[in-house]
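Bug: token stream looks shifted between consecutive jobs. Job 1:
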Amino acid sequence: MKRFKQILYYIDASKGSRAALERAAELALRNRGRLTVLGVKRLPLDLRLMAPALPLAELQDMATQDLRERLEQFVEPVRQKGLRLDIEVLIGTPFIEIIHQVLDHGHDLVMTSAEGGPGGLKGLFFGSTSLHLMRKCPCPVWVIKPGPHRRFARILAAVDPDPGDEEPPSVNAKIMQLATSLA
């Protein structure tokens, strides 16, 4: 199934997962799609106190340029595989900026790495950004547990067993179709 043509991969620059990026690149290559890597910089509210002599716009430019340079280095091995890859750097709250990006650019899949670590109790849970995306994103969201790149043993597809009158019955069927095609 060549379903996903515009894939958005959100990377938390402090916990970037090379395995998750490679999985997103592999999917984009198989679907002959385009991959956009998105980094979102959260600026502290007291930024003006930290560097009062610099204009706010200049501070934001410095922060986004630094993140862009780190992302360029991070994606270089994937770019060498011949994949069409774009990098976007935004400032704001990650889940809000991701949703804006999906709406503005027509992405049909959002991929991200789970925010918990690869092991221990924290690794069993999704982070705040992932949970917000699963509830609010207008396209499918694939959250990949950080760790080595290997075959998936399980794929979780969240469906509503009793959708009532609010959701058309085709939504559950579409979710199952997407999950089985990925499996």
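Job 2, same session, no restart:
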Amino acid sequence: MNGKRVATETFSIHQSSTGSSITSRFKTEAGPDRAEQSSELQLTANGELKSYEWKEISPGQSQATVLPSQDFLSERYTSGAGDKPKEQPFLLPLSTNILDDYFFIQREILAWKYLATSCKHEKSGVNCPLKEKAQLGTLNAHARASALVNLQFSGREKVSLHGAEHELIRLDLKTESGDWVLWLDDQLKLQRIVDSADTTEVVRD
């Protein structure tokens, strides 16, 4: 943020014929208010939600689990150690995307779903309709709130990463809480994210 490294996210993605598993751990840099959180997202082979778990490791011990409940979603959560679990239903389909606070790898999963449903995959690369918005449903388990977001393909751009110039795919993500620009390489790996105010930058190491 503002040119200073403030946090690191470490993640892994495993895909198989039966689905995908995405795990992530987010840590802020050393300081008086150091925070650490973890998440695990399980998806079916067609991208629907199997389960999502979020845990606050420090400074608190909040946690939440999102599971299918018949054709919709239900979140079970606690605000701290020893708290009695509470449950909140969401009239959201199983195709809803998890877009939680702090876990930027979930933006990559969202981008993949957009590219899979709105674009053509040709030998020359991804071919998407230019400036055509796609609306996707999301759930923020940490805030226990759902929202619609817009994603659109904005062409290819030359971007400087780690001292070298790369031509990347640009996607524009518009949400209720703010707008982000996402850049992916030709292997569809998310390389850089910048917020609309240009104060927060996320870069793949």
